[in-house]
Amino acid sequence: MLQSLVSWAQQLLGDLRRVWQHGQAPVPAAKIHTSRPPATYEPLRRVLLTDGVARTLFDEFGQHRARDHGLDETGWLLVGHRRADEALVLATLPAGVEYDAGVGHVWFNSSGQALGSRIVRQADKRLAILGVVHTHPGSLRHPSDGDFRGDSQWVRNLRGKEGVFGIGTVDAPADGGCVAWQPQANVQCLGSLRFSWYTLRQDDAQYRPVPVEITIGPDLALPLHPLWPALEAHAERIDRLYRQQARMTFEVISDDWGPGLVLTMPLAAPGDAVRVLVRRKEVRYYVVRGGELFEAHPPEDGHVDRGVYLLLAELAARGP
Questions:
Q1: Which of 175, 196, 239, 299 could form an SS bridge with 141, CB 3.0 to 4.6 Å?
Q2: What are the pLDDT digits (tens) for 65-78?
């Protein structure tokens, strides 16, 4: 048994070295280069979804419907680029695991989404929150009066003082087969699933239907979705650590043990760093010094930020 554990630990460290030296794709995998934000914003005339984002919405809506609580509402936060008169949606941040929902409401887990937004924006600081998609259990394809009361205040904080809002329902006529189709400019259907799209500006009296179109591109946040339970469990402390460690970076990995989030905090010497591997049921700490990777075991209680600072204190006590 001891030999098996030693072999397992050596294999894990070897896998981590390969990931961190040769690199699996971080999240996002590449920076997106776009023009600078416009000086002024006009009312949105269309919403562009990448095909990756559209697929995420339909796939995860369908998966949600198949669960025991499939009639409860669910949703996603939309992140992307706000252009002069259009919104390009590049990422979806799910409502989460620890969110509050029923057949008439959904309240997102904001701490998980805040951290997810930081991770996605690592590659492009110009990414911004654009709006929200949520589902209705019946055939109400329009935001409700309750939605309006909240959204009309929230849009004041968005670029252009205008937000994008999608409503998901399960009432599409099943005559499109396996191919998505648009019975109206602001409506997308796939199978029995339907998304209806609207915008709302500050001081508007009602939502306005907005044409939606598809362009080729990824859902930049999709690699985070399998990690969401772990991300939510540690979100507040990782977010606090990020705000305190200016050079901290994020990376998503996936190996035989499943997906993991890697936090990297550079040390004073070039190439040296503290790395933390966060999974749903474990947190592991590593130190990179002189090109070598060592596992560390700070006396922590599952709190990521506390473990990091205990490890940094130990390294400081040892000296260079």
A1: 196
A2: 888 777 788 899 99
